[in-house]
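#structure-requests
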Amino acid sequence: MRVLLVLCSLFLLIDYTTCQNTTVDLECPSLENGDTYTQSEFLSRLAHTCRYDHLLLPTYETRDVVYVHASAYIYVIQPADAHDLNFKLHFLLQLRWTDPRLAYLPYSPEREKIIGEDDLRSRVWAPHLYIPNEQSSNLMGTGRKDVLISIAPNGEVLFSRRMQGVLYCWMNLQKFPFDVQTCSLNLESWKYNASILRLMWEVDNPVRLSSELHLTEYSLLDYWTNESVVRGDIINMRLGGAGNYSALKFTFKLSREVGYYLMDYFIPSMMIVAMSWVSFWLQADASPPRITLGTSTMLSFITLASSQAKTLPKVSYIKASEIWFLGCTGFIFAALVEFAFVNTIFYRKSVAPLKKVNSKYILKSTLTPRLARKALQKEIEESSPQLSKSRSCSSLSQDTNNDPAGMGYNHYLTVHSFPSAINVPTITTESYDDLNTRQSPGRRHLNSGSENSDEPPPHHTWTEMTPKEIAAWIDKRSRVLFPLLFLCFNILYWTFVYCL
């Protein structure tokens, strides 16, 4: 009885094994006579799950490194505004690798290529790449648009896809708008480290530019490619874990075109600064036109500069455009200050004593009239020994309307000691204005000592200028000084932006 049971069990086991083998043969289609099948039928047999797993590496059995060769064709490079710190890139990315499991030459020798779109891409293994400096892109997406994949008889797979990406470019704007920016497209392996998958650029022409590529705000100076290895760990959230990951980089150097900024910012700002100098040709007492001209030029320049600043990010360092803004603002403000200074001098009522007619003594007597007047009095006392005994006794009047130096200098009670026969001192009173009226109008020379004295004239000769003459003298010098200083500023500025 037991023998019968054992025999029955053996028969059942043999039948079950035979059924399983038959089922396997029925589920795994044959590749023989592959040329008789259509591309879709042959592909369904070639990539059947019984012999191909698209989740496994092509070399999962041999443990060899998978080499993925990349190339790119650039259609458009469109840098965005400076405040966005990014650029748009339209390009065709091609990835090439060899998958021995897809070699079909022994089964279909007359078939040249298997070409498909996204449906074919979903059936085969493809490297998982990502762009670390992307803001938005559709790399390796699931859309059907602009996707092409081909399989050669030896198992070489060529994956092509047109992509549009917005990539970050961390610009250095210290020399804006005369800056040169270096931006890059980075490709890195996401899942497999460098010991399993290695990214490489094609040897011949890894990156090609379209003949219709044109840039508006920039000019393309140079571009290059390089391969590198990046360190990955759990902090970087790599699916493959810690290790070194292969990476590719396409770098291009862009130079900003300054023609737009010259025509819309720099030349208009130069003209605005030059307009502020028109006030030097107006009368010093023409307050309404000079104030209107100064304030309008200042407001116009600030409006012009603010329109340019809106396109720039708020950074902590000083840009070249801000140096230009500060320089032009300083010249316009200096023209306003010059008017206020000249207008104040114009309405003074007293003449200014000058030791010499030059810039040093004119500005000194203008800024410090009391000190100049004291220096004049001291010079007269030192140059006239006969008046050395004169003393100012008291002021005879408190009216100081005509006294430019304040109270105590309008009227004097003086005692003069002159040699005479009876040797009697003479007491006279005279005002400071009467002393001035005795001089000739315009510029006057004050010669120390008596007019009837036979002594030689003193070594130093003082002269005087009226407030109107001083105001006109300052305006006349400003007409030359301001343009020369602005020219020096331009030489230093343009040397900095182009030579440093």
